[in-house]
Each structure stands twice: as C-alpha cells, then as structure tokens.
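In this section we turn from sequence analysis to structure. A common task in structural bioinformatics is to predict how a protein folds when a small molecule is present, because the ligand can shape the pocket around it. The inputs are simple: the amino acid sequence and a SMILES string for the ligand, here zinc ion. Study the lines below before reading on.
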Amino acid sequence: MVRRTSANTYLWCDRCRRSFAHEEVSDEACPVCAGAVRPVGKFEALARGFMANELTASDLRSRHRQLIRLIWTRNGMGEQYYRVIAPDVPYNRFEARVTDLLARGAEEGWVRFVLPPAPSADESAYRVEFDDEERFVHELAALFAEPELAE
Ligand SMILES: [Zn+2]
C-alpha cells in the first residue's frame, strides 16, 4: 500500500465535491467552504472529481467565451471594429462587450460560430457567421450608443 503523503494525495472536500492540492489548503479546511477536507489518493481524487464534474461549468464557460473572443477578434478584426466604431471605452472593455453581444447573438440564433470538428491549424476553419448582419450592426451601435447609427 502506498503511504499517503502530501506528495501523492489530494485533499477532498465532501461538501464542494472537489479536491485541492495540499498547498491550497491551510488548517485542513476547504479553501472554498471552510469545511473539513480529507486526504485521498491521486487516482481517487481524479475519479471522484470526474464523478462530481470537477471540470466546473464556470471554467468551461470562461473558456468558451475566450474562444468566441479569439474567433471574432482574429486577423485584427477586433481592432478594425474598434477603429470604425470608435467607442468611448478602452479596447479591452470594447472587446468584452462585443464578445458578450456575440454570445447573446449565438444564443438567440442570429450569430453562428463555426468550428472545425477537431483543433486545426487552419484559422479560417474558425469563424463567426451572421444570419442577420443588419441585426449585428444595429445591436453594436446600440451597445455603444452611437446616436447617428442607433434607431
Ligand atoms: Zn468545500
């Protein structure tokens, strides 16, 4: 039997249903909920984590959002939109707001993100398509309150 040292165990929180590395935990308390944690083997932590969906939705969500941002800003498109619209916000906030708008568009069905079936070196395989470009232009204008473009 393998001795359970900090090198080969993780600390498991029953309440949060996830594991932590020893260095993330002090006083044997979960860094998230402050509940008690107990050491489990690496394999057990992994298996339990999978069962508890340790790949948390928030992590997937933020990476999904990041992917959307990378797709619509690629080839300098982000900067080009920024120059054309000339919004009264710094570029990074512009980027975040347009990313949110496109995510909403995708949810509502007037924007589509096209991905290759597997990760590809061909960047053109990743693209955003508009079912309704007018809608996008209007939403974009409204987002940054351009009086001459907004309806
Ligand atoms: Zn916890």
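Residues 13, 15-16, 30, 32-33, 35 surround zinc ion (CB under 6 Å). As an exercise, try to locate the residues that line the zinc ion site and compare them with your own expectations.
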